[in-house]
Amino acid sequence: MSEVRRGGEVSSLALPVLLGFLPDSVVSLVSLVVASRMATEVVAATGLASYLFFILNAVSSVFMVGLLVFCSQAYGAGRVDLVERATGELVTIAVALSLGVVATSTLWVGGYVDVLSGGQVSVGRVATTYLSYRLASVPAMMVGSVLASSYRAANSPWVPTYSSLVAGASGVVLIPSLGLGYLGLPRMGVVGMGLASAVSQYVGLAVYTLFKPPFRVRPAPPSAITLKVLAIGVPASIERLVSSVGQNIYINAVARSGVEALAAHNIGISVESLVINPVFAVSIAASARVGQRVGSSDLGRVDELTRESLRVGLSWMSVATAVLLALAPFAGRFFTESEAVARLVAAYLVLAAVSEIGFGESLAIYGVMRGLGSTWAPLVVNSLTVLVLRAALAQLLQPYYGVYGVWFTQVTDMYGRFAIAYLLYRRLKSRLVVRLVD
Fold first, then answer.
1. What is the pTM of this model?
2. DSSP class of residue 6?
3. What local confidence, expressed as pLDDT, does residue 7 receive?
4. DSSP run (H or E) holding 428
5. Residue-wise burial string across 71-93, b where 16 or more C-beta atoms lie within 10 A, e elsewhere
6. Which end of the chain has less neighbouring CB within 10 Å, N or C?
């Protein structure tokens, strides 16, 4: 642990994690450009389909959060054997669960899209076709989540970054090539886009075989260790699921504002994702570093790590706010020829920019809480704000203010969750510590 006892612990780990997140944003942007070359309905449909992956990411957060916290504490305590065992058990579970999702997808995808599309039949049809191919990526996505979490917990964050970079590069090449027929490949439209997204995930996962792992990785049957991981991961997964429900209610309010509003939302959120990913890196780094301190019984530095996490989150997201405000006037015109959609994109980006600092600070404090072993606190706070201050409020405002009222709920949600989470941390900090490793 001596190599991480210097200052800037959170930022030093956040950098490779940040670089690992960036390819997803680039691929999302490339997918948006490809979709925009087809039709407005395709832009809206692929954006709508992406909300299913919010739910799937919520499920995989059992691995990303539970495993990250458990392995961080185990690594801090010098128990690499527990890191190995936990990783092997979760790989087994990830494979079984993801294959179940893929095998049953034909039974539920169509109904899910019909509900979410808000009656937009053409959009729903395209989204269903796209998802039927993109869902093949789920096994690679979930196994990759397991490996990324345990590698980061063991101070080996660069291999997950390389995996993500390779997957992103593959997606950047394959999505336009199969979607629009470049490089001598057939033009396959949304089918090609979905298939390319799936293939790129497996290419990225293969990168792990090129590097010596920091510990042995081999599948293992679940044991009591899995229960400990789930004890931390399940609340985080429920948090993501509740957030996904809230986001789906929220996107329904956007969809009821019309196809142009839905297309603008997809463009806006794709542009936004390019500049907000740093804060997810800060959250993960905070969880890993705080978890290592809990495992090594060095709780005296938790406040220092908390201040660093908040400071880095504030500085990074202040830059994100400035970038979004600068892009707002013209970003939409790059992706659409519709003047109405472009104006809506500008409005979305301004409202998103206003919310970013609250978003950054809330995720930073969430990361600290999870590292302490308390994933129930973020669950309670996030459930309250996303359901009340975003989803319900969006449905209430949409009939009166249209999509502008819907998008304004980003601000109420983000600053509300930070205020509540920070107050909870200050009042109950000592009670949030949960030791998972003796």
1. 0.81
2. S
3. 52
4. helix 393-428
5. bbbbbbbebeebbbbbbbbbbbb
6. C
In angstroms, the CA 92 to CA 330 distance is 47
State the residue for tokens 């010098």.
78
Residue the block writes with tokens 């302490």: 372
**Contact present, 289 and 241 (Cβ < 8 Å):** no
pLDDT digits (tens, 9 = 90+) for 275-330: 887 778 899 999 999 999 999 888 888 889 999 999 999 998 999 999 999 999 99
CA angle 168, 171, 175 (to 5 degrees): 155
**345, 407 in Cβ contact below 8 A?**
no
For 261-298, the DSSP string reads HHHHHHHHHHHHHHHHHHHHHHHHHHHHHHHHHHHTT-
Q: What is the DSSP string of 106-155?
A: HHHHHHHHHHHTTT-HHHHHHHHHHHHHHGGGHHHHHHHHHHHHHHHHTT
pLDDT digit string (tens) for 14-41? 889 989 888 887 888 898 889 988 987 8
